[in-house]
Design a protein that fits this description.
- The strands form three sheets. This protein has a five-stranded mixed β-sheet with strand order 2-1-3-10-4, with helices on both faces. It has a four-stranded mixed β-sheet with strand order 8-5-9-11.
- It contains 14 helices and eleven strands.
- The protein is globular, with a radius of gyration of 23 Å.
- The chain is an alpha/beta fold.
- Helix 2 runs antiparallel to helix 10.
- Helix content is about 45%, strand content about 15%.
- It has one domain: 3-Layer(aba) Sandwich (D-Maltodextrin-Binding Protein, domain 2), CATH 3.40.190.
- It binds (2S)-2-hydroxybutanedioic acid (LMR).
- Belongs to the bacterial solute-binding protein 7 family.
- InterPro entries: DctP_fam (IPR018389), TRAP_DctP (IPR004682), TRAP_DctP_sf (IPR038404).
- Keywords: Signal, Transport.
- This is C4-dicarboxylate ABC transporter.
Length: about 325
């Protein structure tokens, strides 16, 4: 009997010790993305790691996997839904299979500049999109800026007709596909990790992206011409697996959300500078010419691409398109709050 009691006690102690060890183990948060550390998103992910581990010492451990090193396009969402990765920040062009309305961000020339994108994201409509995929197990936590998109090609492009017949890499977005079809170019959906090689081998002749993505992927080495078109935005939604997020202890979840809010401010404050510096680095590299458009030339691109809006109006929603257009007015957020 005594022996049994002793054994039971020892067993209970070792179980509760195991419990203690377990409780002391930090929660591991895997954050994967497809771009370089030096870009706005890359910097944001690293800052999130630093601040989360500082403010929740020993309670969370954030592992950042840049450059498609854990999962690339096409696989990362699946991995998030399976719980194999806990945070992602896909570009807004990559949500079409989960929420058609998020395609609003891909409509060419809908936002005049990144400030308009920012106002739309802060608006009630923009905030509602963060929660629009919860039924599918995805929770949006924040928007991060990269910046406005520029065109690139193996020949100079001043007007939409210059793009005719060229093959362009696009993200997996039907809107972006259509954006090139309306100017009689040939879009090809391709993952981000394949862009450099696709351009180098001539599988595609051109693409669209931000200066920071171009420079960090060395796209200037394989594209002699860039057109400063600002025709759309590349921004991100920081997302998590809804079940994982709701299952976190309340104090940890709210601290992580606070950290993310602070990181978001910093990412969005720095994004412009990072893109400006990347553009200067491309100029310095001397490999490529950057073509500046006159207002009239830019307007030709706008008019040529704008029919895409109508084509996707039913899927995206007229109200949302109107709200996005309204965000070009600097007073729009104040008016809607
Ligand atoms: C892309 O062109 O696929 C990029 O938007 C990647 C990224 O996450 O910036």
């Amino acid at each position: 009997m005594r022996n049994f009691t002793f054994k039971a006690l020892a067993c209970a102690m070792s179980l509760s010790f195991a419990g203690l060890v377990q409780a002391a183990d930090p929660i591991v948060i895997k954050f994967a993305h497809v771009v370089a550390d030096s870009t706005p998103k890359g910097q944001g992910a690293l800052l999130f790691k630093q601040m989360a581990e500082e403010r929740l010492p020993g309670q969370v451990k954030v592992e950042v996997y840049p450059n498609s090193s854990l999962y690339g396009d096409g696989k990362e969402m699946e991995a998030l839904l399976l719980g194999d990765v806990h945070m992602l920040a896909p570009s807004l062009a990559k949500f079409e299979p989960y929420a058609k309305s998020i395609q609003i961000f891909d409509l060419p020339f809908i936002f005049d500049d990144i400030h308009a994108v920012d106002r739309f994201q802060a608006s009630p409509q923009g905030q509602a999109l963060l929660r629009s995929m919860e039924g599918k197990g995805i929770t949006g936590l924040a928007y991060w800026h990269n910046g406005m998109k520029q065109l690139s090609a193996n020949k100079p492009m001043r007007l939409p007709k210059d793009a005719r017949g060229l093959k362009f890499r696009v993200q997996a977005s039907n809107v972006l596909d259509e954006q090139f079809k309306v100017i009689r170019a040939n879009p090809r959906k391709m993952s981000f990790a394949e862009v450099y090689q696709g351009l180098q081998t001539g599988v595609v002749n051109g693409t669209e992206n931000t200066w920071s993505n171009y420079f960090s992927q060395k796209v200037h080495e394989v594209q002699p011409y860039f057109t400063a078109s600002d025709h759309g935005a590349i921004d991100y939604m920081v997302i998590t697996n809804t079940k994982f997020w709701k299952g976190l202890p309340e104090n940890i979840r709210s601290e992580l959300q606070d950290v993310l809010n602070d990181v978001t401010k910093e990412v969005n404050r720095q994004a412009d500078d990072l893109n400006r510096e990347a553009r200067e680095s491309i100029v310095k590299a001397g490999t490529s010419q950057i073509i500046e458009l006159t207002a009239q030339e830019r307007n030709e691109w706008r008019e040529a691409m704008k029919p895409v809006w109508k084509k996707f109006e039913a899927e995206i929603g007229k109200d949302l398109i109107d709200a996005a257009v309204a965000s070009n007015n600097p007073d729009s957020v104040a008016a809607s709050h």
